[in-house]
Amino acid sequence: MGEVEIKGNSIIIHSVIFFYGGAANEVLSYEIAKDIADHWNEPNGTISMAGRTLFVYFDIGGIWANDLSPEMVFENTNPRYNYFRIEAFAGGNISFVDGLGCNTGYFKLDNLLNHSTTAAHEYGHTLGLDHPKVLDIRGRGVPGIMYPRGTIVDPPFQYSPVARPLEPGGTINPFTRKVLQSDIDGLKLNRLRFNKEGFAVLGDFSSVWHEAHML
Known about the structure:
The chain is an alpha/beta fold. The protein folds into two domains: about 1-130 and about 185-200, no CATH class; about 130-180, no CATH class. Helix content is about 15%, strand content about 25%. The protein is built from four helices and eight strands, in the order E-E-H-E-E-H-E-E-E-H-H-E. It has helices at about 25-40, 70-75, 120-125, 180-185; strands at about 1-5, 10-20, 45-50, 50-65, 80-85, 95, 105-110, 200. Strands 1, 2, 3, 4, 5, 6, 7 and 8 form an eight-stranded mixed sheet that branches. A hairpin with a 2-residue loop joins strand 1 (about 1-5) and strand 2 (about 10-20). Helix 1 (about 25-40) crosses helix 3 (about 120-125). The chain starts with a strand and ends in a 13-residue tail after the last strand. The model has no long low-confidence stretch (mean pLDDT about 95).
């Protein structure tokens, strides 16, 4: 979820992500936010609005919320604020968000390490993007950020370039995903309703507090 601002010849998506849980810390919070921003700003995206081209910029902040309480999540009304629990263990062994266009979720720690695209992928869900319907994209090159694990891709983007499709190693390696202009287009920023100050909201409040999953 985020607040969108039109400023000069730019359109800026402002999001602040509060991280809590047993595996969260100050350094990791900063690194995840930077990783999300780096991925989403990499394509130097643009949109066309009212007859002019605007450059799209993602302003992402990460805060370690060591003293976060459930009430702070439930009662928040700031559209820039998102809340993610980080733990070493997650039921189902995956990171997730609480729906499309939401502001809460749960991260499994090892999904986030070594510049993984997981956080950037889940952030896309918070902005309303779903997984694409067609999951065999051979011949289409670099996979966009919203393709899920299990997608069939060209060999250079598999876990193993020599594996046959759908055999071990023969599906998308999430580290090869990139934010593309098509992902920026999917946000439909030109359809948002901006107030007279030039602000709009992208996404909605899910406001879910997550307890740590138990082994």
